[in-house]
Please model this.
Amino acid sequence: MRAPGEILLVACYELGHQPLAVAWPAAFLERAGYAPAVLDLSVEPFDAEKIGRARVVAISVPMHTALRLGVLVAERVRAVNPAAHICFYGLYAALNANELLATCADSVLAGEVEAELVALVGRLEPARPADGGARVQLTKLDFPVPSRAALPALIAAKALGRAVVLNYRNGEAPDHLGRSAIARAALRSADRIVVPSAYLVDVLARFGLEAIPIANIIDFARFRYRERAPLGARILSTRNLHDLYNVACTVRAFRLVQDCRPDASLTIVGGGPNHRALQKLCRELRLRHVLFVGRVNQDAMAGVYNAHDVYVQSPNVDNLPNSVIEAFASGLPVVSTAAGGVPMMMRHEEHGLLAPIDDHATLAEHVLRLLDDPPFARRLASAAHEVVLRTYSWPRVRGEWLRVYSEVVAQPARRRAWSAPGPAV
Model:
């Protein structure tokens, strides 16, 4: 079941939008070591060759029209590949489970289906009969970045002979590219690969992929620089509450900060599956002045930065986080773990302070150093703001994008079509 295309995810009625209903299951399957193919029938024809290769065909039916089309698809799948296991998943799969199982489905999944789909494939993998029937999964899942590598935009462009500029921005790139043969094949078929950081240029080079770095941009009209004089002890964290961002490390560091500065406060912006665990950790550490505000609309974020004095983050994995750029633009001194591309955007003791990954003690020492030496904190913030003005402004980035597009337009598109990759490594 590990060979490319032995699992096929089918979307029936997405009207040309790249469907999350297949992109997220694809990401879960890739994370588990599989290499699923995707068929989006709103923009692609029924592909009998893909159907014939598949051992599992999972059909997404989130709505009534998709269900009606999905039943017709299942009938054609059964005619082309009678041995394939046909699974329906989504809201309308659950609502019509009995009818589907009596007519055209071998299994039905609903709710948070992604992990159940991986489990189903695992049960089928040893070539023994899988449990039939309907399964409804309501447990919240830890969602990876959706995998759109096999969705039709790239395939259609290559089929029409159009040049492709692929903008790759995955902060988990080493793991993602190591697992996903589909993603590597998609990247190799592009005429240009653009990434937001030199860090990702280096990561892609390890996989034999050449990329061009073009930085993110910042809206200086919204994120305005303000010197912190006097420097308060209002600390800000804006990373989502997922394991890879390790906000727990920031919380533990804050315990040490508050031991020395009882007036210090911590505002945690963002949502995610670790919300309750982090609140529990704050109670266990007997922290005061900690505010969880949840997700904040992007239009309001400039005001959030303006209301604080020090920015802290402690990711385990990262690329070129916009949050750090926004903090720089807003005049906040930054303390961060040295994850991923962060050391390439801020040099230690020149633009900010860096700590080893998951080292809350050093993180706290750095915060206290800033609070104890406000002139030093202001020097770091000023130097970082100069970097932002030079690097992340639209006039500079605009010119770099125009240069890429001009080069691609001036040369014939690479005619090599996207094709199914070899076995994952």
Summary: The radius of gyration is 24 Å. The chain has three domains: 7-137, 163-217, 234-391. The CA atoms of residues 270 and 295 lie 4 Å apart. Residues 374-391 form the longest helix (18 residues).
